[in-house]
Amino acid sequence: VKANFSELKEAKIKELLAADTWAKQKHILLKAKQLQSEIGTEQCDDMNTYEATIKAACKAQNISLDAVQKKQITAAVSWINPEAEKVIKKVHKNTDANPLYGLFEVGGKVVEYKPDGNLRDHENVALDPSQAVDDLNEAYFIQEVQPHVPDAWIDAGKTDAKDGEIGVVGYEIPFNRHFYVYQPPRDLAEIDADLAKVSAEIMALLREVSS
Questions:
Q1: Does residue 42 lie within any of the structural domains?
Q2: Residue 53 to residues 44, 109, 130, 165: CA-CA distances in angstroms?
Q3: The pTM is what?
Q4: 152 pLDDT band (50/70/90 cuts)?
Q5: Which residues pair with 104 in a beta bridge?
């Protein structure tokens, strides 16, 4: 095993080779097959119904899943599908909708969707001492992000420890702009003279070889 998977540590190899590990995996597989017999094999593009479906199937098959088993089965039977229904992370009560910060009004409710971590990105927004950081972020987001990614939102959980506003305040030093000293290229006549000199040296060496 170690010869083919050198990145594995001794403890992990020992765990993989243990009979108990495979017995547990077989137990999970058998539970998954029971759930499949109850749920079926038809693809479902709405993950919001998953919890209720699994719960009903477990009850019908008289089986229980702990958190680890449920997570493993879920990972095995699900994948990211951009065409699927958006997954609702939380339904907020007594909260106004604010799409800029991921709170959307759907069917009279304010919902927060589960983000796709693979699509998470950050932007560098120029500071302006005359404006609040949040105002700058929102203006930049509306102008530069929303037109290209309409369903994106600002992560309000990322705040600066000093000012408490959204986004981490930093700085950038453009070294090339401040410290680069332009060196003009040599004159063409000087370059031609060097090339002629090198060519003459090469021809002289060739004559010595052929003589």
A1: yes
A2: 11, 23, 53, 41
A3: 0.66
A4: very high
A5: 111
